[in-house]
Write a structure and sequence with these properties.
The chain has about 120 residues and is α/β, with parallel strands linked by helices. It contains 3 helices and 8 strands.
């Protein structure tokens, strides 16, 4: 078996999560967060669409971690994100964190918008 060290040079990885927080790039962040090539920022939820639209042209896919359970994205949010040329994939927050880390390690242009579990 060959092991390779993973290089997260494009954006910080998500190291962990728990009730109300995420550990991103070694730092604890409480509440909803956006993790992107531009860095980590507090997120105001689905009404904070401008923070997501600012990523247009920088990412191809946005994983939306909807908390402990998967939920549908509000139609207006999905439409605005997809109209900006960003694919929106809802999943529970743990799955969004794992999927983001895997694709980030492959050098993909991805970001996460996360609600805590």
């Amino acid at each position: 078996m060959r092991l390779n060290e993973i290089d997260y040079s494009d954006a910080p990885p998500i190291d962990g999560y728990g009730p109300g927080f995420f550990r991103i790039g070694g730092e604890v962040h409480e509440g909803p967060q956006i993790v992107a090539p531009t860095g980590v920022a507090a997120w105001g939820g689905y009404d904070d669409i401008e923070a997501i639209l600012a990523l247009a042209g920088k990412i191809d896919v946005l994983f939306v971690g909807t908390g402990a359970d998967i939920a549908h994205l509000p139609p207006a949010f999905r439409k605005a994100v997809e109209d900006a040329g960003i694919g929106a994939e809802p999943m529970n927050a743990p799955s969004a964190c794992r999927t983001y880390n895997i694709l980030l390690s492959e050098g993909r242009r991805v970001a996460c918008a996360l609600f805590p579990v």
